[in-house]
Amino acid sequence: MAPHNPAKTAGRHAVVLAAGRGTRFKSRTSKVVHPLCGKPLLMHVLDRLHQVGVRRTLLVVGPQSKAVRQLAQDAPAGLNIEFVEQHEQLGTGHALQMASPHLEGMGGSLLVLYADAPLIRSSTLQQLLRLVEEEGADQALLTTHLEDPAGYGRILRDGKGQALATVEEKDATAEQKAIREVNSGFYCFRSESLLPALDRLDNRNRSGEYYLTDLLWIMREQGLKVATWTSHRPSETWGINDRMQLAEAERLMRREIARRWMAQGVTMLDPGSVLIDSTVEIGQDVVLYPGVILEGRTRIGPEATVKAYCHLSDAEVGEGALVDHCSVIRSSRVGAGTQVGPFAHIRADSRIGSNVRVGNFVEVKKSRIDDGSKAAHLTYLGDAELGKGVNIGAGTITCNYDGVHKNKTLIEDEVFIGSNSQLIAPLKIGKGAYVAAGSTITENVAPGSLAIARSRQENKLGWKPPKKRSVSRQDAKDAKCRKKGLPETN
Ligand code: UD1
Ligand code: CA
Fold it and tell me: Which of 13, 196, 278, 424 has the fewest CB atoms within 10 Å distance of its CB?
């Protein structure tokens, strides 16, 4: 998107309505904190406002708004969010009325949006702003045409095509319900024109609510200019009222995200099965196999490959790395050319260097593994620091937990740990040292030495197994009878 013109955006403000009960969403928390492609619904809306240069934002919240208030702390700072409480949920119009004392004396243009409509494009918001700022409209509202308009307010127009009013579904006649043009719930007002109209809202309708949508006919009656802009991409106007609509929006946004990355040179073998959060970044020539999930602040370097059913969240994967099937990486970094998996689990706070190999059934937790080291099979590395060129044999375990504390294992460069060793932390194994296979190491190992900690093997020369006593058939029969308490058979 082209950067906005600061001269034009100096007086841009917004009111975001997020105080509704969200009854249809059936959630214990506000629906607007639920994620869509990894980002809360509300945050999508706030990001959009930031993109169009809004400088002051009034966020209308309900009484149980802790989660919403907390979330807003992560919003772009330039939005200058202020909270407005709506104690009773008496409708969208009432919610806007609650904000009106804060709007007093404010000039410029005012966007009014619902926090449950996260798919809007900033270019569409720009059109509403343009109608007010350049075409002199007192109110601009967004409409669209829906195949199935159920649940939305319908737009009533006169013979000349002028928008006269919005009628809510509950109040609509059968004839009005057949109208496919709906109110999308995005508005822009000339701030000065809004307040006098807002005072005139009432709740004489089927729901007994104050409808924001009544501002259309009220402003027209006041002789003010009301303009509409019609979106030809109905999906951008979707409001999320229930979980089915959330899933639909998720599907749509995921598809767009996948397309965006493919357009930038990412290969996806089955884009429909790949889930990429809106916050992820992917380099050129990356190959993603089916079922890959990339979440949060995950960054995939160029030419890396992520094979089927890997789940990466807040993971950083270096250039040319391979994350092989069914591996999980969380809040960790994996260097260039490194191979992880199949079936590896890299847990939080791990830093894995370049050209490292973390093989199948290896779990790494809060550990550092420096360049060129290998832990190829069946290993647990927890709270460990490995230098360069270390070789960890199959079945090695860092015993990091003594029941009270987590202890560290330090393994210096070029160390060789034989298979099936237990390294009981705290422990330091010096540079170039060897640990013999099957050892249980409890004490530090000096650089360049060999540690063996297992019982010595004993070979008994010429040993034969004890002879089995042969049992006659009659003896066996008698034994059976005795067991059952019967007399013996002869
Ligand atoms: C609203 C519009 C409808 C439009 C649709 C588009 C009204 C009366 N109707 O209906 O014309 O087609 O959006 O999606 O405006 N909220 C408050 N306080 C309240 C009530 C709601 O803050 O007292 C907030 C909600 O948190 C929500 C937003 O306003 O974010 C919209 O409310 P909702 O109940 O979802 O309105 P719709 O029935 O979808
Ligand atoms: Ca809604």
Answer: 196
Q: How many CB atoms lie within 10 A of CB 107?
A: 11
pLDDT at 295: 98
**Same domain, yes or no: 193 and 264:** no
Q: Whole domain around residue 354: which residue ranges?
A: 250-451
Q: Closest ligand to 42 CA? A: 1
CB atoms under 10 Å from CB of 208, counted, come to 9
- CB of 168 within 6 A of ligand 1: the answer is yes
CATH number of the domain that residue 338 is part of: 2.160.10.10
Residue 240 Cα to ligand 2 midpoint, Å, equals 6
Compute the distance between CA of residue 382 and CA of residue 346 in angstroms, rounded to an integer: 10
Tens digits of residue pLDDT in 247-280: 999 999 999 999 999 999 999 999 999 999 999 9
pLDDT digits (tens, 9 = 90+) for 123-169: 999 999 999 999 999 999 999 999 999 999 999 999 999 999 999 99
User: How far is the CA of 84 from the CAs of 57, 87, 97, 100, 101, in angstroms?
Assistant: 10, 10, 10, 10, 10
Domain boundary, last residue among 237, 260, 282: 237
Pick the more confident residue, 48 or 486: 48
Ligand 1 atom nearest residue 210's Cα: 8
Asked if residue 89 has its Cβ within 6 Å of ligand 1, the reply is yes
406 alpha carbon to ligand 2 midpoint, in Å? 49
d(C-alpha 140, C-alpha 162), whole Å: 12
Q: Would the pLDDT of 470 be above 90?
A: no
- Say how many domains are in the chain: 2
Based on the fold, state whether residues 261 and 172 are members of the same structural domain.
no
- Tell me whether residue 482 is exposed, middle or buried, using C-beta atoms within 10 angstroms of its C-beta: 0 to 12, 13 to 18, 19 or more: exposed
Amino acid at residue number 241: N
